[in-house]
Amino acid sequence: MREVSKFTVVTEGTVTTPQGFQAGGLHCGLKKTTRNDLGAIVCEVPAVAAAVYTLNVFQAAPLKVTRESIASSGQRLRAIIVNSGNANACTGKQGEEDAYAMRAAAAEAFGVRPEEVAVASTGVIGELLPMDRVNAGIQGLPAVLTAGADGAEEFCQAILTTDLVKKEVCVKLNVNGREVSIAGAAKGSGMIHPNMATMLGFVTTDAVIKPEALQALLGMTTDATFNMITVDGDTSTNDMLLAMSSGLAGNEALTPEHPDWESFVAGFGYVCEFLAKAIARDGEGASRLVEVNVEGAVSDLSARAIAKTVIGSSLVKSAVFGADANWGRIIAAVGRAGEPVNPETVDISLGSIPVLTDSRPISFDEEEALAYLQGDTVVIHVHLHNGEGRATAWGCDLTYDYVRINAAYRT
User: Catalytic annotation on 309?
Assistant: First the structure.
């Protein structure tokens, strides 16, 4: 374990570490390989649930089903059924019926009510689900669900598409003297852009928390984490971030007035930030994680807009890939963000290497900058000297492999 501020990072923790949760996954035939493509997280009690969704106008059928489940169950869920390999998006009435059929089949398999089941899908857009394979897979899931690390591993593998690695994290903290766990798993490497959830993500906790408090916390945390990443500027039809709380830790219900609320917020934020950065680092074809820190903006919202503009710039991303200390691309992105900026007071640094002061170039060691930009992580600092606003965004470089991967995604 590793101590971090008000919580402890559990290096071996998973989405099943919080009390009451089981997970599992298997291959049902949606993918051409034998890689898992169907998974589930199941809670032994009705869990408080909250969710945020993509803002894309074309929203996949599973999002409608999940929204309906959370609304009709009083923000309580018992299970999440997830498939990869097929997005069930832009599939018309049949796709909607298939999403409801997935919910019904999962409810029967897990012995819960249909409105206690959330549905999520990811993969190729515009193809109908082979429901015979999906239904057969759902029937097999109860046998592979476990509360141990193996079940969580199989679930993580089941939700991946072009991802190269699984993404999971867990923290523990004390609330009213009781141990509380918060864990998360996510998938995402392409069609990632800050505009609500920006991927599939699942957070579990055993804390007792009011539904309205969990929804508000999820929205606030998403704005500062998942909404601050970009890989390619595309927001998918299927993006969803879902949180479930079993309440089995037995603490006094968490609200903003609770004395341990800030500790819980810190732990929850760490989980979401870790997953967001893991998605950015695993961007399709990426070779480097890029972080943009903006300070001195007129407000935090303004800083977020500027940071997202810089991190989303194809020219900035290309410069990082080429290890080119081209600060001109950075300041150009700052200037087109549509936010108040004093064109005479901008400072830019690449890591600890200043390249611009008061919007004027300064001499720097090109070899030192080259060596820094060839590292695994590149941090760009932008100080506007225009206020107190600050924000951080994460992304990745733009490589030849990104084009190769997406040129043949469907085939």
Answer: no
